[in-house]
Automatic annotation (TrEMBL):
Binding site for Zn(2+): H106, E108, H113
Cross-referenced CDD domains: metazoan_ACD
A GO CC term assigned to this protein in UniProt: cytoplasm
Keywords associated with the record: Metal-binding, Stress response, Zinc
GO molecular function: metal ion binding; unfolded protein binding
Family: Belongs to the small heat shock protein (HSP20) family.
GO biological process: protein refolding; response to heat
Protein name stated in the entry: SHSP domain-containing protein
Amino acid sequence: MSLVPALINELLDDYRRPFFGNMYDQNFGMGLFNDEILTPRSSLLSVPLRCGYLRPWRTLDADDSGVSAVTSDSKEFKVNLDVQQFKPEELKVKVVDDYLVVDGKHEERSDQHGFISRQFTRRYKMPEDVDKAALVSNLSSDGVLTLKAPKLALQEKASREIPITQTNAPAVKPK
């Protein structure tokens, strides 16, 4: 497998992004650094975001687009969500039935470009074997909200052995 397509795509993103940006991207309305306007990104491995955070893993498609990452293995259920544009007090995490719900909202406020307000709601269907009472959330210094819950121990299925009795008679009777 070749890394060439991934590297070419990353290089082309430097030129496409200013012209074909997604209007619904979570960075919509954010200011640009001067070097983002004048020259392409200088490194494929570490790129400062508009907010000034350094994210060496930004080349991953999910992290670059602001899409959350959900993992569920035999030990835990985990969600990583980029919420860098929200303060901790502007975020709410709750469990509603079998769903994990994350809300973020900040009221209209002024910035260097005018006024802006943001709001989002993400709902994640949790597996049945997740311990919802043990759900924890952590917000990293670079604005990634991590939600984790351990899986419940699987109960062994009840089983019983059925004894075999021999009848000493044929199952099919001759005609």
